[in-house]
Amino acid sequence: MHRTILSRALIAGAALVALAACGTETKDQTNQARGTKAAIPAPPEKKQVRGLPGMPPVLDPEDVYAADRPNRLSPVVKDFPSRVYVPNTESDTVSVIDPKTYEITDTIRVGRQPQHVVPSWDLKTLWVNNNRGHTLTPIDPKTGKAGEPVEVHDPYNLYFTPNGRYAVVMASLDRELVFRDPHTMKRKKTVPVSCYGVNHADFSLDGRYFIVSCEFSGELLKVDTEKMKVVGQQKLPFDGAMPQDVKVSPDGKKFYVADMMAHGMWVLDGDKFDEPELLPTGKGCHGLYVSRDSREMYVSNRGEGSISVFDFTQNKLTKKWQLPDGGSPDMGGVSADGKVLWLSGRYDAEVYAIDTRTGTQLARIPVGSGPHGLAVYPQPGRYSLGHTGIFR
Fold first, then answer.
1. How far, in Å, CA of 99 to CA of 90, rounded?
2. Distance of CA 369 to the CA centre of its chain
3. Which residues 6+ apart lie within 8 Å of 246 measured at CB?
4. Torsion angle, CA of 117/122/124/129, rounded to 10 degrees?
5. pLDDT band for position 3 (50/70/90)?
6. pTM for this model (two decimals)
């Protein structure tokens, strides 16, 4: 009798131990036993960007160009005809090209020495910067018709703050950054600068500052967007430097500055505004244009008729495309589908269409004299920061 009770007690104890052991099995072990996969941990959430007040939220903290994907057109521009607008500085005209046929469809008379064609922040207007005519000519991109010129002194280039609150005129010879109403262009604040030839710019990921090139004194400025104040200034470490176009990297960590005399791009940390390093690209490095997938940047080398291709991920130049019969590739933009790079031929009275997959020249189109800051329009993006089309 006692042995029977003891045996039953031992069996019951063993069962309890086995049951307890089952209870300590992990969820992954259970899944493995059942032949199912363990749950994959969720990726860490991306850090939110505290942008400039009033600025549309940053879509992707790791890619400032996330809104610029192929054919992702804003409802504002989806019905606009696709055109290439070419300001001819010595002809005082804008040539309008149909990108499908490569033919000029119109020639618009504008003011003296048009330098750039600039999309407005709200995407509704193209502003022609008549530098020596001291006016801006508005063009309606839906109809292609020009409106009445607006008086603006020394408008070499034009940008817009990321919140759309101000237009920023690069008054090159006046040595001023002029903050204006983005619609009426009435002067709101003038910021005198000590450098010479304020020229091109781009904004930080959060929109809180922008970096400006000073062409004729070889300097860079860092400007606080909200305070409308220069907070940094430095001389480039190259005798005779002549900085041109400016672009921020997709992750917002670096700025690239083309230099026509140093024959390459300066690379610097925008937040630190530290001393930049030179990356040689080619003679007369001038314009910088980011691909629709944010992986590459096309660099026009005006002095040698070539385009260098820079890979952001590899942090190096991977290709160089030579224009057949040479040329002077200058400013431009990328087609809405990302397949064609359009560049003006500054000293050759022509425009180049280049296949972005192969570097093949698709067309060479005669235009007026001194073609400069051409705009491909429309392009993807929610709003424009200016120049020939910097979209976010």
1. 23
2. 27
3. 200, 201, 202, 211, 212, 213, 255, 256, 257, 258, 288
4. -20
5. very low
6. 0.88
Q: What is the mean pLDDT of residues 81-89?
A: 98
Q: Which two tokens stand for residue 174?
A: 């006046």
* DSSP annotation string for 162-197: TTSS-EEEEETTTTEEEEE-TTT--EEEEEE-SSS-
Q: Do the beta carbons of residue 321 and residue 362 sit within 8 Å?
A: no
Closest CA to 352 of 310, 297, 307: 307
Cis-peptide into 378, omega within 30 deg: yes
Asked if residues 137 and 146 have their Cβ atoms less than 8 Å apart, the reply is yes
Looking at residue 67, the DSSP 8-state letter turns out to be G
* pLDDT > 70 fraction of the chain, expressed in percent and rounded: 88
The contacts of residue 235 (CB under 8 Å, 6+ apart) are 217, 218, 219, 241
**Amino acid of residue 310:** F
H-state helical runs in 24-86: 27-33
Q: Which two tokens stand for residue 326?
A: 């040479």
Alpha-carbon distance 236 to 214, whole Å?
10
CA distances from 28 to 35, 44, 62, 370 (A): 10, 21, 33, 69
Strand, helix or coil for residue 251: coil
* Distance, CA of 273 to CA of 211 (rounded, Å): 9
Task: Name residue 252's beta-bridge partners.
Answer: none
User: DSSP string of 335-366?
Assistant: -TTSSEEEEEETTTTEEEEEETTT--EEEEEE
Residue pair 187/375 in contact (Cβ under 8 Å)? The answer is: no
CB 254 within 8 A of CB 268: yes
Residue 36 has pLDDT above 80, yes or no: no
b/e burial code for range 223-247 (CB count within 10 A of at least 16 → b) = bebeebebeebbebebeebbbbbbb
Distance CA 386, CA 59 (A): 19
Provide, rounded to the nearest whole percent, the portion of the chain with pLDDT above 90: 88
**Residue 79, helix vs strand vs coil:** coil
Question: So what's the pLDDT on residue 284?
Answer: 98
Cα of first residue to Cα of last residue in the chain, in angstroms, is 87
